[in-house]
Structure formats: structure tokens, C-alpha cells
From TrEMBL:
InterPro entries: Cell_div_SPOR-domain, SPOR-like_dom, SPOR-like_sf. The keyword Membrane applies. It comes from the Bacteria. One of its GO terms (biological process) is cytokinetic process. Residues 48-60, 95-109 have a biased composition (Pro residues). Signal peptide: none annotated. This is Sporulation domain protein. Keywords: Membrane, Transmembrane, Transmembrane helix.
Length: 262
């Protein structure tokens, strides 16, 4: 012990040097003197087993007001079955007080029969033509016939006297006359002796016919109109035998082509 007391510093230095050498050796060999030894398989911690079903921890109870889930509305797929045909509309009931029906103008009578209705006779052929146009617009079959020095407006012919009188009653505003044949039963005296006429034009347009009528009347000629189908024939007359040739020459001087007719 006397040596240790006298040489303690050397002993300490020796111990420290030995520890350093031991540490270097352990470091180089990879030995860790402070590591715990590995546990044996028998001492291994047993694996945890899941608790039995009866011991499953209770789930957290839902709240009283769960959150609202918004579900998008998808469009409905079109049906493959064709839609049913619409039901026919119900017939409208007839009103209790229907409005009075408007009676249409009578249709033109067929060009058969021998009964006629004379509506008027005019010394001015233009007036006769205007009346004929008015009656024709109402649906009547109208004829213009020369009767002496006047133009007669005639409706027909009609197949029976009853039909002709029914038409005449519908024209009470005029002085009508129902007759059979081509001449009224009580014609003017001038119609008993037929005279000659000179036809100077035939027109489809009533305005053109009236223009020629005005020209001839301004020259002092008696003018009548005759309608045949869609043509309005302008005639000068009636003329006596002694005036016929002179009138023809005068009309040719006006640039017209007179044609003698009865």
C-alpha cells in the first residue's frame, strides 16, 4: 500500500491508458459491452389477441340530428314505349241561341231552260254595264241584250218559272219582269220591229267597253251593249235601212271596223 501511495499518479495513468486501449479494441471488434443480451423465445412478449366479440368496445352513439346528405336528381331515362295517340277533341255543343246564318248569294243558274228575269233597260249602255257587273259580283248569271235603242239587263236562263220568280223576289229593289223565251211578253213597241245594229268592238274588260261607249255617245251615236260569255260587245243602233251604209262609212272614219248584226 506504501507503493500505491507513493506511486498513485502512475497507477492512474496506467489505468486510463488501459481503458483507452480496451476501448479502441472493442470499437475495432464491434463489441458493445453495454448492450442488453437478446431475449429468449420463451421470454418473448406474447402476441396480443383481439378481444372477443362480447368484449368489443361500444360504438359512439350517433347524434340526434345527423347531417343531411344531398342526393342529386338524375334525369329520367326516355321511355321506349311511344306515347299514346291524343284522344279526338270532343264535339262542341251547339249553342242554345245560334247566330243567324248568312244566306249566300245564289249561284249562277245553268245555261239551260227558257225562263228569264229582266232587271232593267237603259238608254245609257254604261249604266247597264255597271248594273250587270254589280249583279255578276253577287253570283248571278247576267246577260246584256240590245232591245231597240236601250240595253236590257237579263238574268238567266232558268229551268223553270218557279226558279225565275224566286230570283225576281230576291231583287225587289228593281223593276223585274219574268218572261219565257228571248223577248218579254210585253216588250216596248220598238222591239216589235227589229232593226239593224253595227258592232264596233268586243271587250273582256268592262272599263274598255265603257270608254268606247263614251266616245260613240260623244259623237252622237246610239249605243247598246250585248254580253256573250265573257265578251262585252259594243253595238251602234238600232239603225234603219237608209242610215245603215252612211253610218258604216262614218264609223270607218273613226278608225273602227263596223260589223252588221241583228
Amino acid at each position: 500500500m506504501g507503493w500505491l501511495r507513493d506511486n498513485w499518479l502512475d497507477a492512474v495513468i496506467f489505468v486510463l491508458f488501459a481503458l483507452v486501449v480496451a476501448g479502441v479494441v472493442l470499437f475495432l471488434t464491434g463489441v458493445n459491452p453495454f448492450a442488453r443480451p437478446p431475449a429468449s423465445p420463451a421470454q418473448a412478449t406474447p402476441a396480443q389477441t383481439p378481444p372477443p366479440a362480447s368484449q368489443t368496445p361500444p360504438q359512439t352513439p350517433t347524434t340526434a340530428n345527423p347531417p343531411v346528405q344531398v342526393i342529386p336528381v338524375l334525369p329520367k331515362a326516355p321511355s321506349e314505349t311511344p306515347p299514346p295517340a291524343p284522344a279526338p277533341a270532343a264535339t262542341q255543343p251547339t249553342p242554345a241561341n245560334p247566330s243567324p246564318a248568312v244566306t249566300p248569294a245564289p249561284r249562277p243558274a245553268p245555261a239551260t231552260g227558257s225562263w228569264r228575269v229582266a232587271v232593267g233597260a237603259f238608254s245609257d249602255a254604261a249604266n247597264a254595264n255597271r248594273l250587270a257587273d254589280s249583279l255578276r259580283a253577287q253570283g248571278y248569271a247576267v246577260q246584256l241584250e240590245p232591245a231597240g235603242s236601250v240595253t236590257r239587263v237579263v238574268l238567266g236562263p232558268f229551268p223553270s218559272e218557279e226558279r225565275a220568280r224566286a230570283v225576281a223576289q230576291g231583287l225587289s229593289q228593281y223593276e223585274t219582269r219574268v218572261y219565257r223565251g228571248t223577248v218579254p211578253t210585253n216588250p216596248p213597241s220598238s222591239m216589235n220591229n227589229p232593226s239593224r245594229y253595227l258592232q264596233v268592238g268586243a271587250f273582256r274588260n268592262s272599263v274598255s267597253a265603257e270608254a268606247l261607249v263614251s266616245q260613240l255617245k260623244a259623237a252622237g251615236y246610239p249605243v247598246v251593249l250585248a254580253r256573250e260569255g265573257e265578251l262585252i260587245r259594243v253595238r251602234v243602233g238600232p239603225l234603219s235601212e237608209d242610215r245603215l251604209e252612211a253610218t258604216k262609212s262614218a264609223l270607218r272614219g273613226l278608225g273602227l271596223s263596223p260589223l252588221e248584226v241583228r
